[in-house]
């Protein structure tokens, strides 16, 4: 019995057209970052477990793919830790490496390790796959590409403004019919915890609030209650669910709410700065919203946080990011603030595919396919193909002298724009016949000059 073949859950294969579509997305993102002065880097697909663990919070750590030690190292597993129910210690003794969960923590390691080779502020972009042991579902994969851009070594809020302009430039060039950019600030969330008297429960509070758009208000309150938040605290949190009006209206409502919290007011000041710089650059099909429950679930954010969603389609965020002031300090380098964004290329791909927004030319094959019917004519076709490739054209020569019908079917299936016939008749008449496969038009050229004549 033959084995049933499939990819692991949460992963997928990409056919040639799919790869061209993804490369189209990568190209637009790369070009946008390059236009703003960002430089490309790459890091390994896996890191030491100690580099990754403890940087994403409990929920994030559970989703990290660990790589099992091999050979003699596996014999060094700490069995006593397992017997004493010290599962984290036992897991580490089994696995010293892990697939990267995102590109930001490896980037922080990269900056610290190569600090003497970099010019600060350092602006980088990176397009590589990441892995998460998450439950596969619509728009959520276990292997997917992130397209990150970061600035480290500058605490200027103008970096946040610049990154949001990059987001606008990319999504506009991809012709998304509309999108919303949601803003918040970790300092605002700290201020909320301060007002409610639960500073020591900041992480539990933000994790629950961040689920509002997924599970709704009642479920968020229920989760907070189950984590020990008292009815008095929940009553203080309740006004946050009722914020309404314009961006400025919400800022004013929050100023009143956070009036006794210096850190919360500082967060509002940072949000206002970014909003003032961008409010006149928002297109008709775009929105810039203050979303006070947005938390971005990752513990390393310390300032501005943002999330982007496409309009009119059921899909999670397609871009997110924020400021992290302390991330490099985890690796021994203090005082180096950073801010970054990450495009979710796979979700963007799914949206463009479902809305049929990819350019038609991506489905086209080579510009020209040379057809032949003998070995001698095949040699001549090879020579012409080389000449045309040197002139920048994409050209194929059909590999075998098969029947015309079979060669034309191949041309149709590949989306070839032109075919050139060079058979016995053409050899006798010293000509080459070219057919436009899109229009059906045919043209006959002299065999000695057809390349120059066809190219015009």
Main sheet characteristics: 8 strands, mixed
Structural class: alpha+beta
Overall CATH architecture of the largest domain: 2-Layer Sandwich
Poorly predicted parts = none
Count of distinct structural domains:
2
What does the average pLDDT come to? 92
CA-CA gap between termini: 58 Å
User: CATH superfamily membership of the largest domain, which one?
Assistant: Bira Bifunctional Protein, Domain 2
How many H/I helices?
19
Indicate the radius of gyration in whole angstroms: 28 Å
Summarize this, please?
With about 450 residues, this protein is α+β, with helices and mostly antiparallel strands. The chain is built from 19 helices and 16 strands. About 40% of the residues lie in helices and about 20% in strands.
Architecture blueprint of SSEs:
Layout: H1 16-35, E1 39-40, E2 46-48, H2 49-52, H3 57-62, E3 66-67, H4 79-83, H5 87-94, E4 97-99, H6 104-113, E5 122-131, E6 143-152, H7 158-173, E7 179-185, H8 186-196, H9 202-209, H10 212-215, H11 217-226, H12 231-237, H13 247-257, H14 262-278, E8 286-290, E9 304-310, E10 319-324, E11 338-344, H15 345-354, E12 368-372, H16 375-390, E13 395-397, H17 404-414, E14 418-422, H18 424-429, E15 431-436, E16 442-446, H19 450-455
Parallel strand pairs: 1-5, 7-8, 12-13, 12-14
Antiparallel strand pairs: 2-4, 3-4, 5-6, 6-11, 7-9, 9-10, 10-11, 14-15, 15-16
């Amino acid at each position: 019995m033959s084995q049933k073949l499939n990819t692991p859950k949460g992963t997928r294969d990409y056919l040639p057209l799919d790869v061209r579509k993804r490369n189209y997305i990568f190209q637009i993102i790369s070009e946008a970052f390059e236009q703003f002065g960002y430089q490309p880097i790459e890091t390994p697909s896996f890191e030491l477990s100690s580099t990754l663990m403890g940087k994403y919070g409990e929920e994030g750590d559970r989703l990290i793919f660990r790589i099992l030690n091999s050979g003699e190292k596996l014999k060094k597993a700490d069995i006593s830790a397992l017997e004493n129910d010290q599962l984290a210690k036992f897991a580490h003794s089994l696995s010293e490496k892990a697939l990267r969960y995102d590109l930001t923590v490896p980037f922080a390691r990269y900056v610290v390790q190569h600090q003497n080779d970099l010019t600060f502020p350092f602006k980088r972009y990176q397009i590589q796959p990441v892995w998460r042991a998450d439950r596969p579902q619509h728009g959520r994969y276990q292997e997917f590409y992130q397209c990150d851009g970061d600035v480290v070594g500058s605490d200027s809020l103008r970096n946040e403004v610049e990154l949001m302009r990059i987001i606008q430039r990319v999504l506009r060039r991809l012709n998304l019919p509309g999108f919303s950019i949601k803003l918040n600030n970790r300092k605002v969330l700290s201020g909320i915890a301060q007002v409610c008297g639960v500073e020591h429960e900041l992480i539990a509070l933000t994790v629950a609030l961040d689920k509002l758009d997924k599970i709704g208000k009642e479920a968020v309150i229920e989760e907070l209650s189950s984590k020990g938040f008292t009815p008095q605290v929940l009553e203080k949190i309740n006004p946050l669910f009722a914020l309404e009006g314009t961006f400025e209206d919400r800022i004013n409502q929050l100023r009143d709410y956070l009036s006794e919290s210096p850190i919360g007011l500082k967060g509002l000041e940072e949000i206002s700065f970014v909003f003032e710089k961008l409010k006149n650059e928002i297109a008709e099909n775009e929105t810039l919203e203050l979303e006070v429950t947005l938390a971005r679930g990752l513990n390393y954010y310390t300032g501005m946080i943002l999330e982007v969603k496409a309009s009119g389609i059921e899909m999670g965020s397609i871009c997110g990011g924020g400021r992290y002031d302390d991330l490099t300090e985890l690796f021994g380098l203090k005082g180096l603030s950073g801010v970054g964004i990450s495009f979710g290329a796979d979700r963007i791909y799914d949206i463009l595919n479902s809305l049929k927004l990819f350019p038609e030319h991506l489905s086209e094959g080579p510009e020209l396919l040379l057809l032949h019917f003998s070995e001698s004519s095949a040699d001549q076709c090879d020579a012409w193909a080389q000449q045309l490739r040197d002139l920048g054209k994409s050209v194929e020569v059909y590999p075998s002298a098969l029947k015309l019908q079979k060669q034309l079917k191949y041309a149709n299936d590949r989306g070839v724009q032109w075919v050139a016939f060079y058979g016995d008749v053409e050899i006798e008449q010293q000509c080459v016949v070219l057919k436009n496969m899109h229009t059906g038009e045919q043209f006959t050229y002299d065999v000695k000059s057809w390349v120059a004549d066809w190219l015009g």
